[in-house]
Structure of tRNA-splicing ligase RtcB:
Amino acid sequence: MDLVEESPYRFRIDRRAPMRVPGMVFASRALLPEAGADRSLEQVANVATLPGIVGASYAMPDVHWGYGFPIGGVAATDVADGGVVSPGGVGFDISCGVRLLAADLDRADLPRIREALMDGLDPAVPRGMGRGAVWRLADRAELDAVLRGGSRYAVERGHGVTRDLARCEDGGAVDDADPAQVSDRAVQRGQGQVGSLGSGNHFLEVQAVDEVYDEPAAAAFGLRSGQVTVMIHCGSRGLGHQVCTDHVRAMEPTMAGHGIEVPDRQLACAPVDSPQGRAYLGAMAAAANYARANRQLLTEAARRVFHRVAGARLDLVYDISHNLAKIETHEVDGVPRRLCVHRKGATRALPPGHADLPDDLRPVGQPVLIPGSMGTASYVLTGVAGAPAFASTCHGAGRTRSRGQAGRAVRGQDLRRDLEARGVAVRGASWRGLAEEMPTAYKDVSAVVESAQGAGLCRLVARLVPLGVVKG
DNA sequence: ATGTAC
């Protein structure tokens, strides 16, 4: 893949047929995916062929190989110009995302209560493949209420406070969810998983604010140096996975009829303005709301433990997805256009002044939450004005080695011992799952966020370090 | 990510 270095942190893949736009990779030279080991830059070029794509096919500094689209990819299509929506541009874990809670505790309080907190969280946070959930839904009607209402429905039912919703993307629920487009099989898989972490890179972590880079922004977010925080990373579990599977299958046989040809079967798509496009977006919104309710219920589970063990409160800083497509208006060449912005392993980062931000955050910009790999730092960033890539930035460290490679390279027991020796308490779901998340299977998250800032995508606000991890 | 292949 030929890359042209436009400036530090910015590499172009020149347009050549059948690409409709160039590719644009935001990364330091050191973070660029290794050719041969990872085909994600070919995927960036493939995405550039999609009907209606505008600007460029973008890759964030944590880009790596994914299903059809790269993880760490952003693509916007023009709805009025035959623009498509593609389930592969969202990912299997629809509205997977991160929520950050701020405790009224200081890290100096932690040594004496940390083990009690971790022992309280361990049984209170359902996790692992399949297995258990905080909430048992009565019937399909109640699941439909979750699919329509997301965190708003959870709060209505007493799982949270109204203030939480002001600190959620979309006020806690995406509009236009269409539960009728969610199959019975997806419903069956989702019925018993609302309020569960899942597995893989999902976690609930007790952290401390280790360094503040931007005091006014941190203060507006409700964060101060030394404060204890809780980060929750999870998604839409089996329900979101089934929605993706179902709608890829439904789109495949309709593509020729829409006159769409793509270089990779995994780029299955349909015009936003088509029956298949609308069906997917309705189901995707429903799965997104499921993921938001999931994070809201896990928040309540953590709150109960912090209250019982430490008499402490947890206030929501923000909840943001990094796997989602949204219909948004952006200026393209000075003209406002309705775009379907796919962010897959990429985080929306609204700039200061944006109308969709709550009043108290509007002067600063949207909080962007970046989880690191297990045992390493996480970051809080904020959006900046005039950024490229339709107000998007990175989402995490980004894998460099597969799950299988990682699982063979280290034993979970050894990894846990190393983490505990470095002051990180570990409550895992399985030894194998722990091993697959070894930090050396990931890029350096600090280098990723520095590249994202260097590329003009966002600004650093604070660094968080782990004290204890409840691992999916 | 995922009842890690219907």
